[in-house]
Request: fold
Amino acid sequence: MAYDKALIAGKLRRWETYLNNYRLPFWEDIPDFGLYMEQVISLLRSYLDYLPPELKEEQVVTAAAINNYVRKRVMPVPVKKKYYRIHIAYLIMICTLKQSLSIPTLQTLVPMDLTQEQMQERYNAYVRRHHATAEFFTQQVRTAAGGILDHDETAAFSTDDPVALITSSAVIAGFSRLLAQKLLLLDGKTLENGGSIEIRTPKKES
Reply:
């Protein structure tokens, strides 16, 4: 595997700038006058435009996917084939979370039967958290890629090897998915009925 570090550094800096300025729309910014399917798809593509251009081969959202979410009761049914603010909010959360969560798991995080008021509160909290997480992510990338970005001070986790950075990113993604799923399983649990909290230590090979 051969990588141009200067090219990677430039791409990382460009994506960092974009993500730090990227915002999902708040509830009040989403249109609520009823949109047809093609209008919904166009709107979502503009809202979810944070993927690097080279990764946009797959459509962010399709009519078939939306119909499937409705059929599987992942989101509310449209009103006379029109989608309103609450539908768009559900779709934004579904499209951004499905990258790391399965649909059944996602349904426990964003139930289909939320009221307008409940969904507004949950969605706006999600938008704020999404942006804060994006900023945290770019800071972590700067640390991990310190050797590539030629920072004056780099942490022990920093690397100047693109392959090592790819490996770390994949491992972190896996751990993050497991953490989200594990925490979701604790909904409604207590120390009495939530299972063991005994600290597990890896077995050492003899």
